[in-house]
Amino acid sequence: MRMVAREHHLAVMSFSTKVSVSEALALIDRLERANSLAIVEAVLIEREDDDSLHVTGLSKATGDENDLNALTWLMREMLESSQHSSEAGRQTAHLARSGVSGSFIVELQHVLPTATVCLALVVSGLDVTAAVTALQGFDETRLVYGTLPVRALSNIPLSHLPASSP
Asked: Nearest-5° angle of CA 8, CA 96, CA 17?
């Protein structure tokens, strides 16, 4: 079963200064405990000292493994397109087929190259005011937030996703 037919949003919290992963995750935890955030799926992106990027799915017990894999793939594709500006237009069109708006993808392509830590969250609820207030405690942060069409993750062909382990 893929993502249920409810409206979800994609919230990407980008930290451009040296913020530890534990600090970013603690922020998310505080927002969840305050009922300001309801996460369906989450992906963590870390930039290493050698500028390499690591994308890791943070599974939620209620999530669907295919949705988590699709979100992980989508974020990797966005990262690649933001690093290779010569292919950005073609890649944006490719990513837009998932149902995510082209303008949202372009915004992420501007934010992701400078992020040291980034959290991409599929949420069923987000108090944007609380999130922005919480992010003000960190320098050089961005919140990119937009509607994630119900079909977006399920539109990603399963052939793009890693095989599930038995």
From this structure: 70
Residue closest to 128 by CA, chosen among 17, 31, 45: 31
Q: Rounded to the nearest 10 degrees, what angle do helices 88-96 and 102-111 cross at?
A: 130
- Other beta carbons within 10 angstroms of residue 24's beta carbon come to 21
Alpha carbon dihedral 115, 70, 96, 155, in 10-degree steps, equals: -170
Over range 63-73, report the average pLDDT: 69
Alpha carbon distance 135, 41 (integer Å): 20
Task: Give the pTM.
Answer: 0.77
* Range picked from 37-41, 70-74, 116-120, 127-131 for highest mean pLDDT: 127-131
Distance between CA 71 and CA 122 in Å, rounded?
8
Of the candidates 44, 46, 64, 95, the one whose C-alpha atom is nearest the C-alpha of residue 1 is: 64
Name the E strands within the chain. Answer: 8-15, 37-47, 53-58, 117-126, 141-148
Rounded CA gap, 23 and 30, in Å? Answer: 11
Domain ranges of the chain: 8-157
Q: How confident is the model at residue 31 (pLDDT cuts 50, 70, 90)?
A: very high
Cα–Cα distance, 166 to 118 (Å, whole number): 30
